[in-house]
Amino acid sequence: MPMKLAKTAFATLTILFLVAPLIAILPLAFTSSVILTYPVPSWSMRWFHELFFADAWRRAIVNSLIVGTGTTVLATALGTAASLGLRNRVVLFRGAVRTLFLLPMVVPAVVLGVGMQVLLARFGLTNSYMGVIIAHTVVAVPFVVVSVTGALAGIDERVELAAESLGAAPATVFRRVTLPLAMPGVLSGAVLAFATSLDEVVLTLFVAGPNQRTLARQMFSSIRENISPAIAAAAFLFIAATLLIGLAVVLSRSVLAKRR
Amino acid sequence: MEYPLAEFIRFDRITKFYGSLCVVENLDLGIGKGEFVSLLGPSGSGKTTLLMMLAGFEQPTSGAILLDGAAINAVPTHKRDMGVVFQSYALFPHMTVGENVAFPLQMRGLGRAEIAGRVKRALDMVQLSALSERRPSQLSGGQQQRVALARALVFEPRVVLMDEPLGALDKQLREQMQLDIRDLHRRLGLTIVFVTHDQSEALTMSDRVAVFNRGRIEQIGTPRQVYDEPATRFVAEFIGETNLVEGVVEAVEGAEATVRLSSGARIVSAVSAPVASGQPVYLSIRPERVDLSETRGEARNVLETEVADFVYQGDHLRVQLQNDAHPLIAKLGRRSREFPPGTKVYAAFSAGDCRVIAP
After folding, report:
1. Of A157-161, B168-172, B256-260, minimum mean pLDDT range
2. Residue in A164, A167, A256 nearest the CB of B108
3. How many domains does chain B have?
4. Which one is predicted more confidently, B84 or A233?
5. Is A7 inside a domain boundary?
């Protein structure tokens, strides 16, 4: 019994440790004060108002949505294609190639950022949405690859062979069998890609111009310039959006699972 | 041996290597139209690989596969028009039973009304019409396999290939499905190539059985032939249970040979492959063909021996016999009298009940 108690206590503490920063910042989103500190003098929605109506913040939100959507589409397409390719036993050094796809996860973002800046300048893509989307895609692809590879591994290869023997050409097998079965993995990959883009600061610092300031980037710079509670409001928005997306994924997965 | 049906499938000197491993070696096999042929053998004997090559999932390293006289090596799987049933059922988990069965018809571009009608008939045939809206995961193993069967038959394929389709089912269900499939084969006149490692399954269902060993066919023939007239030691041991006794050919006379055992006893036996005097051979004697008696009797072949063990096995009595030279097993009908261990007995069998096999 004491063991069980100790386990529960430990688990609670760990969870607390993980969510403490969130708990610390969230109430400040509703402060009426102009500085980001406790105690909260009184509650107000003024910083959300600021977020949606001050020009800099509004544009940052729109930019994040543009870049996030672009990254999601590009990373999901590339990552899914890569995972499909990596299924093929004919690929030489399959393990090594897979590791290569996951590399951006572990390479320091600063290093990627510098390289990206130099490279994008070559192609005249600095200070453009496309440049930021490409940069974000590089770090988002690994998440898609991991998620889609997992989903593909769960597909019985013989189901695809059966489809072929029943008269389906390879493209039809993909469209009618492989893709629908991998869909849960593709969906969570897409969500992870979007979340990665939303969250990305370092690469954005290197490659984005003033016109592509994303929400994360805006938070980062405003925390240096003036510690405004608008940051807390933005953080609140982030968390709410993430939870919503997460919920959507869980729901869609359970709907897909029920259809099995 | 020639089969009286028009040849429909022909494997012409098929060889298949995986890397340096030879899984099928220079194999020839013809299958008639409407014939049910089982490929029987232990795992790794090349039977499944041969089926996969026929389906187009694998390419032979050399040799040709002919269907109705035309080489199909270069024809991709989806144009071969063969229904394949896998051991793992391989149903589409994201489609209902009805959608699964409709799939091959959709691939052939049939109209909605026609598809609906044919799906219904196919599901009626396997008695699953009531479940057409279910997902495969909501069905039992036997039901899933019947869906797979309906899906493989609904488009009236030229050949039906089955890869250990009943291996995942329990014994009772398996035996029922064996009879169901055999019945479908007869009713619809299907050409079926059936892979199994279960010899009793092969004997129950097939017109002919091809016994595989190490990438070669050891023997092909009707169930009766492969059981009663095994051509090789492998076939004799793999199909059913047998007593193998070593001996030397003393004389050959027509289809019979006299073999001298190490004990000095002489046995007259039927011969399936040509042997010569002086050649060392095995005798294969099926345990259920051995009669036991305490008197010598009139039979042509009699061995003097002693009961070592006597086991009651429900449907038969199993007797372990021992003399110095050759242990024997006899299976007696359950109405037979009992022989307590230690009883001196005569084991008797006719010349037709044993076979000479070249080692």
Report:
1. B168-172
2. A167
3. 2
4. B84
5. no
Whether B64 and B212 map to the same domain: the answer is: yes
B-chain residues near A151 (CB < 8 A): none
Asked if residue B128 and residue B256 are part of one domain, the reply reads no
Please check whether residue B127 lies inside any domain of the structure.
yes
Give the pLDDT of residue B2. Answer: 47
CA–CA distance, B300 with A42 (Å, rounded to integer): 113
Q: Is B236 inside any structural domain?
A: no
CB-CB neighbors (< 8 A) of B93 in chain A: 159, 181, 260
> Of the candidates A159, A166, A256, which has its C-beta nearest B104's C-beta?
A166
**Same domain for B351 and B206:** no
Convert the pLDDT of each residue in B302-340 to its tens digit: 888 889 888 888 888 899 898 777 888 999 887 888 888
Contact A181, A55 (CB under 8 A): no
CA distance B17 to A225: 70
pLDDT-derived band at A202 (thresholds 50, 70, 90) equals: confident
Separation CA A248–CA A140 (nearest Å): 20
> Between residues 177 and 196 of chain A, which touch chain B (CB distance below 8 Å)?
177, 180-181
What pLDDT shows up at residue B1?
41
Of B164, B168, B171, B122, nearest to B147 by C-alpha is B122
By the 10 Å C-beta count (0-12 exposed, 13-18 middle, 19+ buried), B303 is classed as buried
Q: Cα distance from B77 to chain A (closest Cα, Å)?
A: 6
The domain that holds B133 is classified in CATH as 3.40.50.300
Does residue B200 fall inside a structural domain? yes
**Domain CATH code at residue B271:** 2.40.50.100
Provide the shortest C-alpha distance from residue B219 to chain A (in Å).
29
Would you say residue B76 lies in a domain? Answer: yes
Q: What CATH number is associated with residue A150?
A: 1.10.3720.10
Query: Nearest by CB to B155, which of A159, A167, A260?
Result: A167
Residue A258, pLDDT above cutoff 80:
no
Q: pLDDT by residue (tens digit) across B143-167?
A: 999 999 999 999 999 999 999 999 8
Which tens digit of pLDDT belongs to each residue from B182-199?
A: 998 998 889 999 999 999
Instruction: Residue A186: list chain B partners with CB under 8 A.
Output: none
Domain that holds residue B329: 241-357
Query: How much of chain B, in percent, has pLDDT values that exceed 70?
Result: 99
pLDDT at B4: 55
A89 in contact with B, Cβ within 8 Å: no
Q: How far is CA A102 from CA A79, A138, A142, A185, in A?
A: 10, 10, 5, 16
Count of structural domains, chain A: 1
Contacts of B114 (CB under 8 A, 6+ apart): B105
CA distance B93 to chain A (A): 5
CB atoms A162 and B84 under 8 Å: yes
Q: Does B82 touch chain A (CB under 8 A)?
A: yes
Placement of tokens 């069967």 in the chain: B149
B78 CB within 8 Å of a chain A CB = yes
